[in-house]
Amino acid sequence: MATKMILILTVELGLIFINIAASSTRDRLAGEIVPVRAEQSGTYNNYAAERAIDLDWDTASWIVADQDRNSWLRLTLDNVHCVTQVIEYSADTSTYQTWTCSDTQCTCTGNYCSIYSLTVSTTGTLPDNLPSVTDCKYGDIVQLNRMGYWFSIHEMAVVGKQVQQHL
Questions:
Q1: Which residues contact 43 (CB under 8 A, 6 or more apart)?
Q2: Closest C-alpha among 153, 163, 157, 155 to residue 29
């Protein structure tokens, strides 16, 4: 994949800031699940939740805490999937955090993992005829949480396996 680089030079108050950004569109990953909805605890200045999943490197979602001081981004999937990974990307297109899921939990590698948590859950009960797995978590809701602060997400990808129900 060839990436086009754009150099932006800004002069502001006598300071020079240089920002190197990749072309503005993120490519979907193999096995990526496209969320049908994105919501967040609160929105700063029209930086809506949908910006975290719009495939545009030039946008971001800014999540602010709710009245209980919880900050969260919730992605709703079209139906139950077996989620293997959730990847958050930085503005420079690098991986910020990678959450790898087992059948019991999702664990983080990357930046500031200790101040975030990620859950995969279902809006109802799971069907009885799903195969037993250990390398992914069944659910139709993916939620990233941070206690008491705002945070921003430039891009987020949910990767999973196709669910094959037993008959």
A1: 49, 61, 62, 63, 64
A2: 157
How far apart CA 57 and CA 71 sit, in angstroms, is 22
CB 131 within 8 A of CB 164: yes
Q: Which residues, listed in sequence order, are joined to residue 5 by a DSSP beta bridge? A: 22
pLDDT per position as a tens digit, 107-123: 999 999 999 999 999 99
Terminal-to-terminal C-alpha distance of the chain: 41
Read off the tokens for 43: 């929105």
> Do 159 and 33 touch, CB atoms closer than 8 A?
yes
Q: What is the pTM of this model?
A: 0.84
- Is the distance from CB of 98 to CB of 156 less than 8 angstroms? no
Q: Determine the Cα–Cα distance for residues 60 and 131; give it in Å rounded to an integer.
A: 37
Helix (H, G, I), strand (E, B) or coil at 114: helix
- 162: tokens are 């196709």
Report the 10 Å Cβ neighbour count for 16: 8
Model confidence over 6-16: pLDDT tens digits?
333 333 333 33
